[in-house]
Amino acid sequence: MNRLAVIVFVSLLFFSCKNEKNSSDSEASSGATKMNESLIYPEETNFKSLRQVTYGGDNAEAYWSFDDKQLVFQSNNTKWGVNCDQMFLMDADETFTDSIAPPMVSTGKGRTTCAYFLPDNKHIIYASTHLGDDECPEVPLKENGNYIWPIYDSYDIFIADLEGNIVKQLTDEVGYDAEPTVSPKGDKIVFTSTRSGDLELYTMNLDGSDVKQITDELGYDGGAFFSPDGSKLIFRASRPKTEKEKKEYKDLLAKGLVEPSDMELFICNADGSEMRQLTFLGNANWSPFFHPSGEKILFSSNFESEIGFPFNLYMIDIDGKNLRRVTHGNTFEAFPVFSNDGKHLIFSSNRNNGGTRDTNLFIAEWQD
Q1: How far apart, in whole angstroms, are the C-alpha atoms of residue 137 and residue 59?
Q2: Residue 210 exposed, middle or buried by CB count within 10 Å (0-12, 13-18, 19+)
Q3: Residue 127 pairs with which residues in a beta bridge?
Q4: How do residues 224-256 score in pLDDT, each as one tens digit?
Q5: Residue 332: CB partners within 8 Å, gap ≥ 6?
Q6: How far apart are CA 181 and CA 195, in angstroms?
Q7: What angle do CA 332, 86, 30 make, to 5 degrees?
Q8: Which residue ranges of the chain lie beneath pLDDT 50?
Q9: Do the beta carbons of residue 151 and residue 183 sit within 8 Å?
Q10: pLDDT tens for residues 108-122?
């Protein structure tokens, strides 16, 4: 959403959506080195400037504080002393190398995902498996030859201060509770849970009270975000249609797994009303985020690819019109998140990674 969730995000780099191909072929031509001494590809006209923030490991799902002064993100950079995704805090103008680690704001135990600031800018929420086990849970990559994401039933959602102290546990239901994000209005949290037996969206108050189910159709609903005015939700979803697809989905979910290669974007009111499908592109469409106007969605997709690569960022109006490409990399661009003032965009990318599989954070100065 990984909210992506939920997500063993690096597995996206090895999708096999239509045809098998050696991933090194794509990496060799990734355009990962600087072009004309700039990190910006010539076609990327929405980027007035672009700054690389991290250098090494897999860095993703970076979210701004409400005052835009700080960011919280997840990383598995082993040189920072972690074995799987943990949460880190940074000032918006900072840059980190392998040898300079930002402060960790999760426990360092288990696996974490999807941290998000609360309105006071002094606390974050995030999901963690640490109550189930101190160790990193196993990460399955394939099931019957297909790439899958694990849905750990030990995930729960917590509030922590910026020193890493957990101050409250928000969920304690049996099963997966993760992918929380906060409304810009500062009144609600949306998250994904299996408490109904399926992966559905729920909302709750900031203290965990008044839990309400938002979606109720078979399939994986996740990675949800509120619109700038808090009135709408955008999210990714799978919708198995045939009996065979439904059985395969249910069988995987019973094992704590989902296959993420076929997802579209859906939009609805914050209470779940007026639900409608926004994209009909095929392949994997995910990590959506509202443009500051509230009238457009920025998201990641590989719908133009025959082999699962590349993933790029696209923009679409909330009525499904005026689809256009924003980034022009040859491997992976995802997790776009606008600052609250709308002036900057942070996202994850394989660009400038020296031909490795590292996924780093980049901050763009945005221009429409």
Answers
A1: 18
A2: exposed
A3: 113, 157
A4: 999 999 999 999 999 999 999 999 999 999 999
A5: 12, 13, 309, 310, 311, 348, 349, 350, 359
A6: 18
A7: 15
A8: 1-37
A9: no
A10: 999 999 999 999 999
